[in-house]
Each structure stands twice: as structure tokens, then as C-alpha cells.
Write a structure and sequence with these properties.
Strand content: under 5%
Radius of gyration: 15 Å
Helix content: over 70%
Largest sheet: none
Order of helices and strands: HH
């Protein structure tokens, strides 16, 4: 099925569906690790990766910039 979709539509699906899901998952795992073991390099990295995905999504939507 994936093969029959156009390249532009596949890109749109990835950016609008998969990236937000992945960033949310990374953020939740990072928060769970911090609750269980306290802050660590791994949990901080997961939280930053989740935040990066959120910022990319906001930028694609034309959201406001934080100052």
C-alpha cells in the first residue's frame, strides 16, 4: 500500500503523523526514566529529542517563536 502513495503524500504523512508520535514517545520515556532514577544523561537526551520534535512540528505549522 505504501508503495502506491505519491512521494509528496508519504512525506506529508511522515511529518504530520510519525514525527509527533515519535517525539511524544521519546518525551514520555525520558520523563519515566527521570521519575524512576532521577535525571541522567539518557533521560535528558530523550527529553531534548522530544522537545526537538515538538519545535520542528511548531515551525512547520508556522507557530510563534518563543523569546
Amino acid at each position: 500500500m505504501w508503495l502506491f502513495l505519491t512521494r509528496r503524500f508519504r512525506t506529508w504523512v511522515i511529518l504530520t503523523v510519525l514525527v509527533p508520535l515519535a517525539s511524544g514517545l521519546l518525551r514520555r520515556v525520558g520523563e519515566a526514566l527521570q521519575r524512576r532514577n532521577g535525571p541522567s544523561a539518557v533521560s535528558n537526551g530523550l527529553l531534548k529529542a522530544g522537545e526537538l520534535g515538538d519545535r520542528a512540528r511548531d515551525r512547520l505549522r508556522g507557530g510563534r517563536r518563543r523569546r
